[in-house]
Amino acid sequence: MTALVRYHSGLLLRSQRWLAPFLAYAALLGVGITLGEPVLGALGFAAAVLLPVTAWSVRICLSQEPPAARSVVVAAVGRGRAHLAALLTGALWPLLVGVCAVLLVTVTGDRRGVGAAAATVAGLLAVLACAATGAAVGALASR
């Protein structure tokens, strides 16, 4: 499965189709979160914005492969594993970006009344929930 995820990651990064959703995420975070804002609200916003980005990324990963290459991968590993690898690739990259956003927001936010560890755990759980929901929406919206 690791090789399939690396294969789909390579396809995604070389195609540069990942730029639009991740630049949109960065722009929305830049507009929606200010330095010194209460950390829990900022973490909620960062997680909520990740949902459409993950759906967009999953949709890209599920439809990026040319039909001939998809047939070769399906013949080698099976239809289910090939589809699961594309789905995981589309969900893991936004999740990684979301984790980085949580760490950045926790460091720069106003943590009055909330410890850094508690805020980080809450942010990571929110990002995980929104990334999983976005992956489901993206899978349902693809072919």
Could you outline the blueprint of secondary structure elements for this entry?
Layout: H1 2-15, H2 19-32, H3 39-63, H4 67-77, H5 79-108, H6 116-141
Helix pairs in contact: 1-5, 2-3, 3-5, 3-6, 4-5, 5-6
Written account of the structure:
The protein has helices spanning 2-15, 19-32, 39-63, 67-77, 79-108, 116-141. It is elongated, with a radius of gyration of 17 Å. Helix 2 (19-32) packs antiparallel against helix 3 (39-63), helix 3 (39-63) packs antiparallel against helix 5 (79-108) and helix 5 packs antiparallel against helix 6. It has six helices and no strands. The protein has 143 residues and is mainly alpha-helical. It has one domain (2-141). 84% of the residues lie in helices and 0% in strands.
